[in-house]
Structure formats: C-alpha cells, structure tokens
Amino acid sequence: xxxxxxxxxxxxxxxxxxATLKCYPIPRHDTVYWYQQxxxxxxxxxxxxxxxMQSDKGSIPDRxxxxxxxxxxxxxxxxxxxxxxxxxxxxxxxxxxxDRETQYFGPGTxxxxx
Amino acid sequence: xxxxxxxxxxxxxxxxxxxxxxxxxxxxxxxxIHWYRQLPSQGPEYVIHGLTSNVNNRMASLAIxxxxxxxxxxxxxxxxxxxxxxxxxxxxxxxxxxxxxxxxTVKP
Lengths: 114, 108
Prior knowledge:
The complex is a heterodimer of chains A (114) and B (108).
Chain A: E1 5-7, E2 10-13, E3 19-24, E4 31-37, E5 44-50, E6 53-57, E7 64-68, E8 74-78, E9 87-94, E10 104-105, E11 109-113
Parallel strand pairs in A: 2-11
Antiparallel strand pairs in A: 1-3, 3-8, 4-5, 4-9, 5-6, 7-8, 9-10, 9-11
Chain B: E1 9-13, E2 18-23, E3 32-38, E4 45-50, E5 55-56, E6 61-64, E7 70-75, E8 84-91, E9 102-107
Parallel strand pairs in B: 1-9
Antiparallel strand pairs in B: 2-7, 3-4, 3-8, 5-6, 6-7, 8-9
C-alpha cells in the first residue's frame, strides 16, 4: 500500500539559510500534519491542514510557514535557520472522519543546520 | 489538552505479555484514547484506539478502566520488533499532541 512520502530524506543547511520540506500524503487523504522531533525528544506538533486550509497550529516558529496544495501535498518552508532547528521533521496524513482518524506517518526528513 | 502519565521505561522478555499503563485522570467525555509507537529511526505508527470499551486488533489490545481515568495497552506476546517508545495520547479533535511515552525494551 502507498505510504506517506517525504522529501528530501536528509538535508544539510547553514545557519540563516532557508529550507523547504515536502510531504506527499497517502492517496485520497485530505489532512496533513507536520511534527518536529529534536534529538532525544518526543514529536512536537507544528501545524496541520485539512482540504488546503490550515486546521490547527502548534509550536511552529514564526520563521516557518506551510501550506497544502490542490493535489493535497504539503510543503514546510523554514527560513533564517538556527542550529536548534536541527531535528527530524515528520509529516503524517489522514482521512478525516468522526472517529479521531488514524494518522499515518512518513519516514521523516532529517535536517542538520550547521 | 488533557494530560497522560506513563512510566518512562519498561522491560519485557521475548514472547511474554506486556502491559503498558497510562493514567489520564483529567480525561473528558469526548476524548478518545490513542496509542502510537515509534520504532528506532522511524516515524510513529498507529497501534490502537478506543473510547469506552476494550478494543482488540491484530497488534494489541486496549483495556480501558470503567471510569476512563486509566488504560492499559496489552501486547500479548512481545517480540524483539516490539521494542519502541509507546505513546498514550488523548484526542478530542483531529490534532494530536505527543507526551513523554514509555520506552519498551524486549529481552531475548
């Protein structure tokens, strides 16, 4: 079965640079979530989108922005990168229903800021 | 958001049952109890969820206390591949907040 695809899988950037992470949800899924997981930490919710509209916002820095496109893929744009942004970034997708739907996670993008 | 409390770590022997507890004393009536796990170097993976009744699936069982203030994830026969961090999460809407989970070690 098709899974969530994230690209790139690894990314190295310098401080103050920008980065764009991409997420391709499972076909027919209408909701995308972004999470950040620092070294040795638990995943932290950043932001989510449902039908191309922002659904909820977590601990996403103002330097980051995200959007969901008409084909339901999503991009997380990160600017003025800081050393502390080094982390694993997970995208998850789901099909919204009334039963607190299951989120399916991608393999993650590992970002290293030097 | 309602909070959950889990042990930091647990150990199990291979092929033995494992009971992973979760306390959620401030749970509201509309909160679903979800369990996810994260294997090393992988994204979180859905395990099971429930509202009031006990639930079974091919991966695990979920036992929910009658007052819903606690729940237990049951792995019937732990394998080495079950070694992971297990997260108990309360959800009253579609977004999910991870707390500190339980790191399960499975010994051969």
